[in-house]
Amino acid sequence: MVDIARQSPTTRSIVAEIAKRQNIPAFYLAKIMPRLARAGLVRTSLGASGGITLALPAEEISILQVIQAIEGPFALNVCSLDPERCEHHATCPACETWCLAQTQLNQTLSRTRIADLARASK
């Protein structure tokens, strides 16, 4: 996503080119792009002039959105995602700490935008 954000907004990036620049296996990148597209974070187009572009400005896409689009709900552990699902929730001395850590991590990832990382990586 950062690689795409660093390109001109009119440039359509090709999976193989992104993979090469970022040293990511192209087959892995090809698997996650549809997830990012379903989440409304990228647009993909086929054909000779096809490729991938951001569906939203990079300033509007958070790191948390990207993680959730690829992996689903992001949790440090079951307790931090849904404390009621943990059988030890009522008596666990660590539950509050896990939940606080989850909240702080989510806030950081929500505040951090793709544009922030794109600017930092130039």
**From the alpha-carbon coordinates, what is the Rg to the nearest angstrom?**
17 Å
Strand order of the largest sheet: 1-2
Figure out the total of helices.
Answer: 7
What count of structural domains?
Answer: 1
Low-confidence stretches: none
**N- to C-terminal distance:** 14 Å
**CATH fold assignment:** Arc Repressor Mutant, subunit A
Output the CATH homologous superfamily: Winged helix-like DNA-binding domain superfamily/Winged helix DNA-binding domain
What's a quick, concise take on this entry?
The protein has 122 residues and is mainly alpha-helical. It is built from seven helices and two strands. It has one domain: Arc Repressor Mutant, subunit A (Orthogonal Bundle), CATH 1.10.10.10.
Q: What's the helix and strand layout?
A:
Layout: H1 2-5, H2 15-22, H3 26-38, E1 42-45, E2 51-54, H4 63-71, H5 78-81, H6 95-111, H7 114-120
Antiparallel strand pairs: 1-2
What does this protein structure show overall?
By secondary structure, the chain is mainly α. It has a single domain (2-120), classed as Winged helix-like DNA-binding domain superfamily/Winged helix DNA-binding domain (Arc Repressor Mutant, subunit A), CATH 1.10.10. The chain contains 7 helices and 2 strands; from the N terminus they run H-H-H-E-E-H-H-H-H. The chain has a two-stranded antiparallel sheet. The two termini are 14 Å apart.
List descriptors.
single chain, 122 residues, mainly alpha, Arc Repressor Mutant, subunit A, 2 strands, elongated
